[in-house]
Specification:
The chain has six helices and 14 strands. It is α+β, with helices and mostly antiparallel strands. The longest helix has 13 residues.
Length: 297
């Protein structure tokens, strides 16, 4: 749900957070500040700080998710916990598990499973509690979730500032002579299919990915991948563009008959939102990778 306001004469010079609090009785100032800091509030289409002083005739837009606390039903599935404390949970997500419900009909997700396990999660979003980043359904591996709102905002900011370090493993089709590849190509939503992304130079966002060859296999290669930006489907789109599609990628790859995606979030490094200590978490190479390598070495 989105609400829009045009700043009247008396609203000029007023702080953005106070203006919204006076115009939306159902939201507390704390909730309003959270919405502003998480990019749910714009002034003339631009993001501003809570302390921003409004000007007459400026348009303020705020997106508020309807609170549906009962949308999350327990899902009887045991999630492997790599690390947990009072602020964060680091999990090892299996391939084939969706992170959060896309709608009320889908309940077999990571978030539903964590709720069933009695894990506390941040409430910045009631539909996506704890979620500060996502892995595609087919992607396995290490993922961090926030247990409280303070940690949630801190981690969101770390992702935005690109201080979080990520490393993926992927097995891709094709042969390659070089040991390292760098792809610096912008990405935009595919106009012919809004569920997909593509390399584009029109209305696109920068995307930078580094690929390192770990092992050359028969007609395929095992990559270590370090994305320096975090665009939707970035790794898969860049690999498609350089003609090394990921095995099992039905969206961007080829019809190769493999039912699982061979993309794995191997390492995640972050600064702890409370202690500021840099921590690195690892999810080992999954069984499907080891089996494929054994059969194609």
């Amino acid at each position: 749900m989105q609400k829009r306001f045009i700043v009247a004469i008396e609203g000029g010079g007023r702080r953005l957070d106070k203006f919204l609090q006076q115009n939306i009785d159902s939201l507390s100032r704390t909730k309003i500040n959270t919405l502003i800091k998480t990019g749910k509030v714009t002034v003339n289409g631009c993001l501003k700080k809570p302390s921003y002083l409004l000007k007459e005739k400026e348009e303020v837009a705020i997106s508020v998710e309807e609170e549906q606390k009962d949308i999350l039903k327990p899902y009887d599935f045991t999630v492997k916990i790599i690390y947990e404390d009072e602020d964060i949970i680091v999990v090892d997500k299996p391939s084939g598990l969706t992170v959060h419900p896309p709608n009320a009909q889908v309940q077999n997700t990571l978030i539903n499973a964590l709720c069933n396990m009695g894990k506390a999660l941040s409430s910045v979003s009631h539909i996506r509690p704890g979620v500060v980043h996502r892995l595609d359904k087919g992607t396995s591996g290490v993922m961090v979730l926030a247990k409280n709102n303070s940690s949630h905002l801190n981690l969101i900011d770390q992702f935005k500032q690109r201080t979080i370090k990520k490393e993926y493993l992927a097995i891709c089709w094709g042969k390659i002579d070089r040991d390292k590849l760098t792809v610096d190509l912008p990405i935009a939503r595919d106009k012919n299919n809004r569920l997909k992304m593509r390399v584009s130079f029109i209305d696109a966002k920068s995307a930078y990915t580094e690929f390192f060859v770990i092992e050359r296999l028969r007609n395929s290669v095992l990559f270590s991948i370090k994305p320096r930006t975090g665009r939707m489907h970035q790794i898969r789109v860049h690999l498609k563009f350089i003609e090394h599609p990921i095995i099992g990628d039905t969206k961007y790859g080829i019809n190769d008959g493999y039912k699982e995606l061979f993309l794995h979030a191997h390492k995640l490094g972050l600064y702890h939102p409370h202690t500021n200590e840099f921590m690195e978490f690892v999810s080992p190479m999954p069984e499907r990778f080891e089996k494929f390598i054994g059969e194609h070495s």
